[in-house]
Every structure is written in structure tokens, then in C-alpha cells.
Amino acid sequence: MAISMRVDLSNMLAGHQDVTGSGPLDVKLEARGVSGIARIDGELKLPLQLLCSRCLTPLEEELVIPFHERFTQQAELVREEDEENTHIVADAKVELTPYLEEAVWLALPYAPVCREDCLGLCPDCGTNRNERPCACHEQKRDPRLAGLADFFKE
Ligand SMILES: [Zn+2]
Ligand SMILES: [Zn+2]
Questions:
Q1: What string of pLDDT tens digits covers the 154 residues of the chain?
Q2: How far is the CA of 139 from the centre of ligand 2 (A)?
Q3: CB neighbours of 78 closer than 8 A, spacing ≥ 6?
Q4: Closest listed ligand to the CA of 51
């Protein structure tokens, strides 16, 4: 059985500091019953608007999240190697939304960046150092050389 739907996760994502907006979650799953276990496999896609964690520039990203979960009403059917993603459920009807939300939450990028070598904002003056350098750190001595400089002063 194919499961195809769109889920609005904006309420959940509003609680995440790096996420400024999101499109609907695009859910494409295939559900199969194999010897008492429902196997649900497929892919979730989520368009996200984020802020670069270093320079706060808005950026867009589409998360593609693999989804593989198993559900059963009979605990004795669960094999050890499947324990982690097999859920024992009381009801034959499973509400998928919490599992979708969990998969998305775990896949959210930790400290997203606009580019790998983003220089970020200067912690002292707030200048976006990707756009122009600031003078804050130029006069400061390299702390690793400080000991030596003191030595030469004597
Ligand atoms: Zn950046
Ligand atoms: Zn600065």
C-alpha cells in the first residue's frame, strides 16, 4: 500500500532556533505486511528555511530523510536485529505523525552554515566577515606566541 501525503509541521518546527520557515512535509511511503509486521519504508522531504549559525544569513535547504519503521501487535515476532526500529503497538491503526515528526526532528541540521568556510560575524563588532574584514583582531597578538614575546622583552 502506498502512502502519499503532506503534513504541516510548522508548529513543531517553530520551536527550533535555527529554523525560520518550512514547507509541508512531503511523505512518500510504502507499507507492506510481512508475517505480522507492518514494514513502512520510504522517504520524507522537507523544504526548510534556516539561518546560517555563523553569520545569520537566510538559507534554504531541502531535507531528504529516509524512513524505515516497523510496527507489530505481537512482541514475540520482533527479531533482535529489528528491535531498534520496531514498535509494539496496541492498536491495529497506527498514527504515523509522531514517527514522522521524530524522524524530521532528528534530521534537522545541527548548526547549519551558508557555506563551509563561512567566516561568521565578528564577536566584538558584529561585522559580517564574509562581506568585509574588520580590524578587531588584527592588532592582537597570537596567544600562542605571547609567552615568547614576554621573554624577548626582558
Ligand atoms: Zn554564513
Ligand atoms: Zn570586528
A1: 999 999 999 889 988 888 999 999 999 999 999 888 999 999 999 999 999 999 999 999 999 999 999 999 988 888 887 788 899 998 888 899 999 999 999 999 888 999 999 999 999 999 999 999 988 866 555 666 666 656 666 5
A2: 11
A3: 37, 70, 72, 86, 88
A4: 1
Q: How far is the CA of 108 from the centre of ligand 2 (A)?
A: 30
Regarding whether 34 and 86 lie in a shared domain, the answer is yes
Which domain covers residue 144, as residue numbers? 119-154
Instruction: Give the predicted TM-score (pTM) of the model.
Output: 0.76
Among the bound ligands, name the one nearest to the CA of residue 59: 1
40/8 same-domain check = yes
Provide the CA 114 distance to its chain's centre, in angstroms: 15
Report the alpha-carbon distance of residue 113 to residue 123 in Å, rounded.
17
